[in-house]
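QA checklist item 7 of 12: single-chain prediction sanity check.
[x] sequence parsed
[x] length recorded as 185
[x] structure emitted
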Amino acid sequence: MIIQGEALDVTASWDSEIFEAIITDPPYDLTPDQMKTYLAEFRRLSTGTIIIFAAPENQWPASDQYLFWTKPISTKNTSKRYSRFVEVIHVYTGPTAQWFPKRNWANYVNVFPDFVEAKTEHPYQKPLSLMERLILNHTSPNDSILDPFCGSGTTGVAAVRAGRNFTGIEKEKEYVELAQQRMMK
């Protein structure tokens, strides 16, 4: 299910602790106070794992684990500065957080070199392979996952493919429609 609206407006009336996981990629221009507000709301809605993608310069409150997604080199937005090829993935673990690695993860580092294989019209799409891995590692079948900034719906596609329930929130109508189309395939 994809809901059109602003994340905090939509979730304000929801009951607490209704999702086993929240996996999201919020806007990168949030202020520290906004980040704290969103994190508090995410904690209210889930006692499980909260996974937040962020630019390296975004100072989200300290998380339990830090992962890194290394992106392919891009010439986008590199005028007179180095290309940013990495995003930080903050992992917050609540009291019911789960960890279900499917292989020997003791030898696996916290750097994910996944590529976006099938690009949509959304400029900040995440790799489906990375989202699937995070979902399989941190949720069980039939768990409920929330992405309050679902964009083109990659987290939703990964959740459905993995047998999880999914709720997404997106403020832009064109991306709501795109996410709904992608999840129906």
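[x] summary fact logged: The chain has a mean pLDDT of 85.
[ ] second reviewer sign-off
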